[in-house]
Amino acid sequence: MIPALCRALAAKEGFHGNFRLTSWNIEHADKLVTALASADGTTRARADQRADAIAEEIAAINPDILLVVEGPKGEARAGEFLQRVAPGYRLVRRGGEPRDYGTQGTQWMWFALRDGLSVAAQLVHLDRWRALTEASSEGAHRGGRWEVSYPILDPGAQTLRFSVPESHGHYRHPQVLQLTIGSALVEIIGCHLKSKINSIPVPPGAEAPDFFDRNPALVADVMMSRTKLTTECVDVRHYIDGRFLSEPDAAIIVAGDLNDGPGKERVERRFLYHDLVDNLQGDIFFARRFLNHALFDFDEAARWSYDLGRDRLDPGRSPRILLDHILFTQALTGPDRPGAAAYRARAGGGKVEHDIHHRVTSARPKHAAPSDHRPVTMVLDRRPFPSPDARAASRRARWAACIFQPCNTD
Fold first, then answer.
1. Within a domain: residue 162?
2. Is residue 395 part of a domain?
3. Which of 177, 234, 314, 393 qualifies as a FRET site for 202, CA 20 to 30 Å off?
4. What is the mean pLDDT of residues 22-33?
5. Sheet strand arrangement including 145-154
6. 135 in Cβ contact with 229 (< 8 Å)
7. 274 vs 263: CA distance, rounded Å
8. Residues pairing with 246 in the sheet
């Protein structure tokens, strides 16, 4: 009787005991939407083949919540795209003006929920994000912008000097999905942070020890892009810390394409001395706010989501890099305890979807490949409902408390 009741309650709260979150950068989806409506038959046929591949991959992964990175621009095109590649899902929309998303360019982020999930979902307004980041940063981040310093080239002397201060803000603002599952609140921060692409071509001879000394303009360029990327990550961290100002066990997930991963590549080793994940995870001494990684216990050799090819700036670097991430706060981990979130990240439940991506891609020509990124997935399980003995003990304690003060025993 009790197990049946527990299953019924879990179903009523939206998920049948667990839910699966997938983050996938679907390469240039906005261009795909345009190609699907092309007047040119060949272009349209190739676009249809690629859309079929994307649809097959999503169906095989079978997520409850899908975060699409590099999605189409605007609600109308996103809805059209989702109907084509994931017809069993509903798009989470703001329903206001396009500017409410705070996103420039044609690479937008979208959350989609499987049809039939009885969960309340909404996107956090950017005003709320900015209020929390301003409070957490003690005013350093204000109105969606913040000061940032990086070296620039002095053309006359061909030397570097610091530009202090410049300002920066998100080109693609993070989108926060707020899920209410029964009485449980979970937030998923979707991110697509700034790219580290160089605007100055990398000249030959990158292996030489004095390479950076001979190319100050390139150093300024790569330092600027990586510094801006780092500050975007810090802004995300300020939002998380801001949430903890009022909720000491906030259940928060960060997902998406961070355009960087664990480990220090050549520029980070030489100039920055940190990697992006270090900044995002937080301080282990403030354990509740520390972010755990969904791929922590995933096979290290397969812990990559993008094949960069040969990196001309860092030729010795492995081309297989982890750009796509899912991280989560302590409330979503560990044993059942007061303050723990209603859902818990499953041990071994994080993975890069290599097998599915390989199978879908293998039977198709290059133009029909679904994406250049592999999807990343995490499974969270519903924590067990209290046992009859635990509920009885709790009721006895509440009755005992009534001896000393009035209380509601309903």
1. yes
2. yes
3. 234
4. 98
5. 141-142, 145-154, 159-168
6. no
7. 8
8. none
